[in-house]
Amino acid sequence: MGAKKWKGKEKYSNLFSPIRMRNVRAKNRIIAAPTSPSMITTEGHFTPEMIAYLEEKALGGAGIVTYGEAIVHSATGKSHNKQLQLDSFGVKQGMAQAARAIHNAGAYANIQLSHGGKYGGLASVGGDHLDKCNTAYGPSHEVTPVGEVQEMSKELILEIVESYKKGAKLCKDCGFDMVQVHAAHGWLFSQFLSPVFNQRTDEFGGSLENRARFLLMALDAVREGVGPEFPIEIRLSGDDLTANGLGMDECIKVAEMVDDKVDLINVSCGNHEDPDMFCRTHPSAFYKRGVNVYLATAIKEHVKTPVACVGSLNDPAQMEEIIATGQADMVEIGRALLADPYLPKKALEGREEDITPCLRCYECFGETGKSETVKCSVNPTMGQQLPEKYPRKAPKQKKRVLIVGGGPAGMEAAITAAGRGHEVTLVEKADKLGGNLYPASAPYFKKDIADFCQVMINRVEKSAVKVMLGTEATPEFIKEFDPDALIVAIGSYEAKPPIKGLDKDNVMMAIEAELHPEKLGKKVVIMGGGLVGTEAAVSFHHEGKECAVIEMRSEVAADANSFYRGGLMPEVNKSAELYTNTTVKEVTDEGVVCQRDGEEFVVKADTVVCALGFKSAYDKVDELCELVDENYVIGDCKSVGLIYNAVNQGYYTAMSL
């Protein structure tokens, strides 16, 4: 008998047990959930970048890797500006290469068949381009704020059913092992199932059986296209979570209707196009991890088909518990595999403490919308899989590298430079590593950042980096150390504008307030409605404080990416009174003197918190850089930014040494 190789096999025995679906025998219960960053050509074909992105998920150990939202009928169904179009001439080559790449990296290749329904012709979250589809077709005629929707004719319904058959066969011909039919998130079949959107009076409207008819016809067509031994997965909602949509009971009935037609039921919820629901469909940090698993469990009790769950799952121990206790048969992981594609492999090998946690910051979604690429706050190589495939040459010279500052930028640079074989010393004036990750992780909903900080500290400790805590890197220290290369990562400091009364005893800076909320009085006024100020308000309200936020601009959290802001703002509105278009004139013992529309008024406060931004210490940076010819500036002291900037600059700067 062969030796047992993997600790995780024992610890997570259910998670790493195989499962059979017709001719597929997945090696574990982990599916890389359908994702579809816009790294697609304008003709609707895969790019090499997209293929490398999918390949890495397979290399990371997922049993099945799913590409998301392949459009079966591009004349009516493109819900985003750029999507894989299964009916586009020339699409096959990239698909075959993607399937091969996934296979050669050790996983099964799955692909999601989708149609945007009415969003094919309407401006939407992912699709604002005029060249999407000429007409919006939905279950029923409606006039929306972003355009008119025409009722889909029976002829068009039958044409789309046929396109599901053709698209599924094409996927099989190109080497994919499974297909997933998307019937959730507000797209085509979800619209037909919805009693809100579907007002038809023919055989496709009215009763739930009629509203499900289109979906059932499409599933039969897909089966015809792929044959009897090919697994079909379906993504269903467990609950629309809207007042008039499909409730859990009706979603269970739909699952029962498809039970004999599919081999895996993936249960999600909500609506991609509803800003309030987006952060539940793709759960934000304000929800517990696994928030949507109960929906899969509810459906599993009524079907014989295996059921997969979703819901910002990140922790192998939680995944193991879900499967061991029968809540679901498989777990589908989306953003967590962007933060760390090697999550399954690390769990299998017993290295789960080294899994980089997803921060649920939506930087990945935000970047896809902005630049049609993908990136991740905590994974500097996400979206860079193609260049990363080409190994870099080893450094010509082993350098003595001094890194000043132990925040995320400094730690990432230190770990990476040491991994390249350099002799690295990391100097931090505080008594612990982490820098501004500590105040950033202080709010109750920011545990993800605290976990990330700990993972980074663990990596530094396991590396060959020499760490000097409680040490300030003065010019004298650097001259004496005499490094070959200097990396300055001293972070930023809190801005303190010349506002009268800012030196009073009732004023606290945001970092101190975040770290010591017990020092705050009952009534708290926060000056500054950026991300720091708004998140602080949510945090302090949670601690039982009465909060107000004062912001000069017309809206708070204006610079947050729209996806994160969608989850944040309902919490902010519950937590604080907001004073926008308002300037601070003075802080007094009574509170904050403000001005808006030419009128002065006082917002009373026991404690005033200053959250008016951060500044880079350019003078100090310049002074230190002058001392060493080979010098680099990274993180907040280069330009105040997001965790992404710090980690990204730390990695690529160290890789260039």
3D structure, described in words:
By secondary structure, the chain is an alpha/beta fold. Strands 3-4-6-10-11-12-13-14 form an eight-stranded parallel barrel, surrounded by seven helices. Strands 17-16-15-18-29 form a five-stranded parallel beta sheet, with helices on both faces. Helix 17 (408-419) runs parallel beside helix 25 and helix 22 crosses helix 23. The longest helix is centred in the N-terminal third of the chain and has 20 residues, at 154-173. The radius of gyration is 27 Å and the shape is globular. The model has no long low-confidence stretch (mean pLDDT 94).
Distance between the termini: 47 Å
What structural class do the secondary elements suggest?
alpha/beta
Strand order of the largest sheet: 3-4-6-10-11-12-13-14
Number of helices: 25
Could you name the key traits of this structure?
single chain; 657 residues; alpha/beta; eight-stranded parallel beta barrel; five-stranded parallel beta sheet; 25 helices; 20% strand
Give a short synopsis of this structure.
The protein has 657 residues and is an alpha/beta fold. It contains 25 helices and 29 strands.
